[in-house]
Amino acid sequence: MSRLSFTNLPVAPEVDPHALSVGMVHLGIGAFHRAHQAVVTERAAVATGDTRWGITGVSQRSATVRDQLAPQDGLYSVLERGLGEPSIQVIGSIRDVLTAPDDPEAVVARIADPAVSVMTLTVTEKGYRAAGTGLDLNDPEIQADLAGRPPRTVVGQLAAAIARRPEPLTIVSCDNLVANGPFLRKLVGEYFEALGKVPEVFEATRFPASMVDRIVPATTEADRAEAARLLGVRDEAVVVAEPFLQWVIEDDFAGDRPAWERGGAVLTRDVAPWEQAKLRMLNASHSMLAYLGALRGYETIAEAVRDEELARLAQQLMTDDVVPTLSPPAGLDLAAYGETVLERFANPALKHRTRQVAMDGSVKLPVRMLGTVRDRLTAGAEPRTITLAVAAWMVYVHQTPNLDDPQAPRLKSAIANLPTTSPPPAALVDALLAVDSVFTPDLRDSTVFRDLLVDHVAALTTHP
Ligand code: CS2
């Protein structure tokens, strides 16, 4: 079967890719970006006829996406899997892909290009190389960038490009982090300080916060086969997504930007309430289902949420522990939102693996769970259900041989002295609570939190 390309185009993208010039760069061109910002950017171009917003995607590590997209003229499809028949759409907004390890200088040059006025990034929690609330200056990659090589870290790339630009840039973080934009600004500022020179243009560079939402599981061979069936040509770069898509962006830009609001995004003054509701409700219950589900042997999130007990716990986590900590944005009904979240998780066509969501827990937990724990403890409440989710992570860390986590060596060495089967619950809890890159002293020192953890770990190790 032939391959999707300009000359093999069964369903044309809504935008004419030939007409687009590159005005935007995206760092971290994984499946999520291709199913989210690239789609909204294309819809905005279609709605406005503005041809300035073709995208240069940057792979931070592997050349896989570039190698998939290059023979396809940058074209790929989004396979939408909802409750009915799947549907497919070819997207043309990504115009080229650079791979940072092959040519780090080309990445900086592209971001510094005056035709580029805006960029987005999805580099995952660990891509920020933070320790606590600041840049991890002990990170060897950050140190190597600071020492002057063509930068390879995200913060190093941004700093180098900002310093080279005459005009300020707008950098939109699209990762699941609290106050992602301001956080990134702080990290870049600390990088400049470590270099000993803060360029003038940094002051005018904008870092709006944004909340992104769409469930995008890793593509499987079955998805590629389905795409081929629907398209009549093969697409090696197809991405799978649920129908739901949301993007709320702080309206704070230094220069021109795509009219994303015409592509379905919401531009607003304050993203924080949206972001907090999403991280604490959706992402926390997602992680809970991932850890508890994996411990019960469920392969996918949909299977986990079909387990009535797990569904009830996810619901309880949201209503009992999270909702009391939130000030919802006007127009968002939290109870209805929680129900929609569980319905979305139950989508049987998505096959989102529990192990995929369980990845990188050491950097996800502080963002999506521990803020809730802290707020509830401060209010004098017992955060019972969310603590079960943290306990499930602890047991998962102990039981998983090849833990997929940037801090796996540290976590595994913290528990190295424990028996591999049936560790004493208090010993497991204390060993992991002591990892200070995950748990801050206030949490470590809370006897309420510790006692709950020990109870839950004891229960989970007997009946997962
Ligand atoms: C998930 C998210 O993998 C994970 O940690 O919780 O990727 C989740 O699917 C998205 O944030 C949904 O918007």
SSE layout and pairing:
Elements: E1 22-27, H1 31-35, H2 37-48, E2 54-59, H3 64-69, E3 76-80, E4 87-91, E5 94-99, H4 104-112, E6 118-121, E7 130-131, E8 134-135, H5 140-146, H6 154-164, E9 170-173, H7 180-195, H8 201-204, E10 210-213, H9 221-231, E11 239-241, E12 246-250, E13 266-268, H10 272-295, H11 301-306, H12 308-322, H13 334-345, H14 354-358, H15 361-378, H16 384-399, H17 408-414, H18 425-433, H19 441-444, H20 447-462
Parallel strand pairs: 1-2, 1-6, 2-5, 3-11, 6-9, 12-13
Antiparallel strand pairs: 3-4, 7-8, 10-12
Helical residues, percent: 40-55%
The CATH topology of the largest domain is given as Rossmann fold
Main sheet: strand order: 5-2-1-6-9
Which band does the percent of strand residues land in?
A: 5-15%
**CATH class wording of the largest domain:** Alpha Beta
Unreliable sequence segments:
none
In angstroms, what is the radius of gyration?
A: 22 Å
CATH superfamily annotation of the largest domain: NAD(P)-binding Rossmann-like Domain
Q: Determine the mean pLDDT.
A: 97
Number of H- or I-type helical stretches:
20
General shape: globular
Helix-and-strand structural type: alpha/beta
Total domain count: 2
Measured between the Cα atoms of the first and last residue, the distance is: 46 Å
